[in-house]
Amino acid sequence: MAPIAVEPSPAPPTVVGPTTKKATRPTNQIPQYLIEEARVQKEPFNPQRHLNFQPPSKIHTMKEIGLEGHGISLNAVSEPFPLFTEDAIKQIRAEIFSEPVLQKCQYTSSFTKNMIRGMGHELAPFTYNAWYSAEVLARISEVAGVELVPSMDYEVANINISFNDSSEELAQGADSPNGDDLPAVAWHYDSFPFVCVTMLSDCTEMIGGETALRKPNGEVMKVRGPSMGTAVVMQGRYIEHQAIKALGGRERISMVTAFRPKSPFIKDESVLTGVRPISNISETYTQYTIYRLEVLEERLRARLKMERRREVAKHDFDLASAKSFLMEQKQFLESMLTELVEI
């Protein structure tokens, strides 16, 4: 049986969620031109036609940013790399700005004014088939340095939407070179181990749009913003970061998909703090509970198999090992109790 995170590791950072306490619909309307321009002829996802992966020019390590020993991988964050073709982006945008999605899936929070979340396979089959395809998962895992799967359905393709509706913002941005200025998304840690941020906008006329990382010593490091169809993979549960507001373009639409380790034997320090206030709570709690119980089931089956083999081999019972295993599962269940709270 594979080991279950037996080496001591630093405690994960505390996730601070939005001040919004319950799922809230946005009051500012998405511009009509975004909806009208997104209309295309629908087609199914085909990796040969829609995947355009090229390895990133550089992958920054956790050691480089002062976080050696944290997280579930040595890799911290990648430089932007091509992931989807233009045709794929058009299909995804068509689903995002479809009438059923806009009616059901719009959210707002103190972090981001306009979001689309929880589209599901029924409303966004192209998007979901893309993120669950073996080809895409293999490439994301390759960049992350650990085999990953989407955290749960609800966390596939969280869409952050910002748009410029006046020239005033451009003037304000002219003298704002620092990482703390003009955030599109506030400083935060993610609720899940890894994220893949994919750009869905044409960035030709944009200024900014980088991802800023804050190191433990307070230094801010910027990763170049992705262009349309390119992505950045980041171990966001362990790295404090924010998206810098893009200036000069009409819009900045990014797609964030959250990932967790595929192996049940790798630690999973996912929480719901950042997503609970911007989600359908019944769907989120159901999906969270199912995936966590599946992880626990796999761990228990593997331990049972090991105990049966030990008995056949006539080896003595290892009390310390058994108690350590049970304590880890107790902590795993206690973390679930912490996350499943009344709203």
TrEMBL record:
| UniProt-annotated stretches for the region Disordered | 1-29
Provide a Gene Ontology MF annotation, just one: oxidoreductase activity
InterPro entries of this UniProt entry? Oxoglu/Fe-dep_dioxygenase_dom
Ranges for domain Fe2OG dioxygenase come to 162-263
UniProt KW Metal-binding keyword: yes
Cite the entry's keywords alphabetically.
Iron, Metal-binding, Oxidoreductase
Q: Say which family it is in.
A: Belongs to the iron/ascorbate-dependent oxidoreductase family.
Protein name per Swiss-Prot or TrEMBL: Fe2OG dioxygenase domain-containing protein
